[in-house]
Write a structure and sequence with these properties.
This protein has helices spanning about 10-25, 40-45, 55-60, 80, 95-100, 100-105, 110-120, 135-140, 160-170, 195-200, 210-215, 225-235; strands spanning about 5-10, 25-30, 50, 65, 85-90, 125, 150-155, 175-180. The chain is α/β, with parallel strands linked by helices.
Length: about 250
């Protein structure tokens, strides 16, 4: 019997995860803030193993649920429906978009601990926050492939991390457990592990606009699991959050 991945947020990362999950034999239930009808094209592309729903319905339906919304929309996640669920948190903190959050700016909590505090009845695991959508789709490889990449995960609940590890394996990645939620910053913005390793070698002389275009188009370069561990271990905690343009 196929398992179901619930998606709260169906933008670039959510849509890519939905495609990978359907290709891996999972059913997907997609949702966004604009209503199920706005997902008709994506559902048609994905076929019979996908359907659109409200965020609450996607939360109830998912064996695992991915929350892939901006951090400023955290309070809109359906708390009751996510209770008891393993929830994958892809959220990163960008103050210019999310507004300044003193609890993060002062390092009282990580963004994932903030998500866990809001979803007090769920089991939160940080994942898919350190890779671009294009690279997430193009770097997936079957188990045992010599060019398979690792992706970092962080969490406090061993069973939830086991479930997420199995999901990543099905989607084409080795899960690398880098930290508890209190150290989930190790894969966040401004760290050596955040996005750039998966881009590969960046062409010289690109303007800012050309750089962004290249990032959205390049298939990227594999990052083996051991390299993920090394990069996570080398991270030094700096100011929380990052600029969307830098």
């Amino acid at each position: 019997m196929a398992r179901t991945l619930g998606l709260i947020g169906s933008g670039m990362i959510g849509g890519t995860l939905a495609r990978l999950a359907v290709n891996a034999g999972w059913d997907v239930v997609l949702s966004n803030s604009r209503g199920p009808e706005t997902l008709a094209d994506l559902v048609a592309e994905l076929g019979e193993h996908a359907r659109a729903a409200t965020p609450a319905e996607a939360a109830r339906a998912g064996d695992i649920v991915v929350a892939t919304v901006p951090l400023f929309a955290l309070e809109k996640l359906p708390v009751a429906e996510l209770a008891g669920k393993t929830v994958i948190d892809t959220l990163n903190y960008y103050p210019e978009r999310d507004g300044s959050l003193p609890v993060l700016d002062n390092d009282e909590l990580t963004s994932s601990e903030l998500v866990q505090r809001h979803l007090s009845g769920a089991r939160v695991v940080k994942a898919f926050n350190s890779i671009g959508a294009k690279q997430l789709g193009s770097l997936a490889r079957p188990a045992g492939a010599p060019d398979r990449s690792g992706l970092p995960i962080a969490g406090d609940d061993p069973e939830a991390k086991r479930e997420v590890t199995e999901l990543l394996d099905a989607l084409g990645y080795d899960a690398v457990d880098v930290a508890p939620l209190a150290e989930s910053w190790r894969s966040g913005p401004n760290t050596p592990l955040y996005c750039f390793p998966y881009f590969g070698e960046i062409p010289a002389g690109l303007s800012g606009e050309d750089m962004m275009r290249w990032i959205f188009e390049t298939p990227g370069a594999p990052v083996p699991a051991e390299r993920v561990r090394e990069l996570a271990a080398s991270a030094v905690r700096g100011p929380a959050g990052a600029s969307l343009s830098g």
